[in-house]
Amino acid sequence: MNSVFIAFNREYFRRMTTIEQLPTPTLLLDKQKLHNNIAVMQQQASKLGVTLRPHLKTAKSVQVANCFGSGTSLPITVSTLAEAEYFAKHGFTDITYAVGFNPNLMARLASLYHSAVPVRIIVDDLAVARQVAQSAAQYDITVKVMIEIDTDGHRAGVEPDDPQLLKIAEALSASAHIELCGVLTHAGGSYDCHSESQLIAHAEQERAGCVAAADACRAHGIDIREVSVGSTPTAMFASHLQGVTELRAGVFVFQDLFQVGLGVCELDDIAVSVLTTVIGHKARQHRLIVDAGGLALSKDRSTQTQGVDCGYGSLADAVTGRVIEQVKVTGANQEHGIIDLPRHIPLSDFAIGSKWRILPNHACMTAAAYDNYHVHDGCGGVLDRWARINGW
To answer: CB neighbours (10 Å) of residue 304?
Structure first.
């Protein structure tokens, strides 16, 4: 019965040749905008003289990875072991797992190593470094490790001038079952910037801090080959990346309303959106109800800290993607999206049953609710359906 259902499902979606035929809510991906966004970041990495190691936690898709044009030789970043296993299954072998490593996952990591996929992991704690070294010996593998550096107090990592940095580096270097590859940082604090000058300064802070950490290790005779930095905002606003070897960024493939608010991209660069249907009118409140709620959109309200608050997402035409000025999702219950229309816009412009797109505040969070993308041509035609890997 299950195989029959799967076959029916595939045939059902194969027949959906236009956006307006698709069921809702559905995750849409504009193929041309995706390719344009990738090309922009590739050019930026080339200009800065570093290797681009895209963070595929945003896309979680082999088909998106293939759009970089390097095949399975593409160096990639992931945020879960499920992603690492998925990409390894599809032939990718140069993988960095860029979340602080949990030693309880060593059996799964070892399985990847025994399959000739030496996933690089990151640590920022001396006890964890020692535990990883001990476990690597037990599994008879040599684990590639990066030390995570905190360059802006945003999240995890050891600060460049913290004495613990050298202790961690020494512990890793002393183990025959560890290959210390380098240092890595993520300038998440760049998302709090409010001007181009702040973004430029934050990019330099990220670069300088990570390079300083590498130099501190080298001064103590510890070999550091890789210096890895990255976030989409700092990648686009970095003046130079002297001393850096690779650039990691993720959301740039899709872009979103928050990146627009930062000045990283334009509205027309946003490649992902959620297709939704108007399912109700509330005349007294001058309100629309759509079938894309908190689960379909996420409840990310990040743009409320910026100059333009886009609510839970901005409304756009289903076929053209043209944004409807001043119309946004103002409320989100689990399966209901609420749109309080400005009074000068009549409810009749949004008939019950009509379909629209919603542009996301945070593309990574919105996409996480879906198992696949409906890839379209930007003119209303559906080209393909690409799978995603979710979970941990």
So the answer is: 12
Collapsing DSSP to helix, strand or coil, 339 comes out as strand
Interval 119-138 mean pLDDT: 98
Q: Does domain 94-249 have CATH number 3.60.150.10?
A: no
CA distance 337 to 263: 27
Angle of helix 163-174 versus helix 126-139 axis, rounded to 10 = 10
CA geometry: angle 5, 13, 254, nearest 5 deg: 125
pLDDT at residue 113 greater than cutoff 70:
yes
pLDDT at 161: 96
Check whether the bond before 118 is cis (ω within 30° of 0): no
158 touches 148 (CB < 8 A): yes
**Distance from chain centroid for Cα 339:** 27
> Could you tell me the pTM of the whole model?
0.94
Mean pLDDT value of segment 173-181:
98
CB 251 within 8 A of CB 235: no
Q: What is the pLDDT of residue 5?
A: 46
Cα separation of 325 and 88, whole Å? 43
| Contacts of 323 by beta carbon, 8 Å cutoff, 6+ apart | 267, 314, 315, 316, 359
Task: Indicate if 94-249 has the same CATH topology as 19-28+265-387.
Answer: no
Span between the terminal Cα atoms of the chain, in Å: 28
Q: Where are the domains of the chain?
A: 19-28+265-387, 94-249
CATH number, domain 19-28+265-387: 2.40.37.20
- Looking at the predicted structure, is the pLDDT value of residue 213 above 80? yes
Phi, psi of 228, rounded to the nearest 5 degrees: -115, 125
pLDDT band at 11 (very low <50, low <70, confident <90, very high): low
Cα 358 to its chain centre, rounded Å, is: 18
**Mean pLDDT of the 21-31 span:** 98
Question: Is residue 10 predicted with pLDDT exceeding 60?
Answer: no
Q: Alpha-carbon distance 358 to 379, whole Å?
A: 16
Q: How far apart are CA 81 and CA 79, in angstroms?
A: 7
Q: What is the pLDDT of residues 227-263, one digit of tens each?
A: 999 999 999 999 999 999 999 999 999 999 999 999 9
CA 10, CA 236: separation in Å to the nearest integer?
39
pLDDT of residue 13: 55
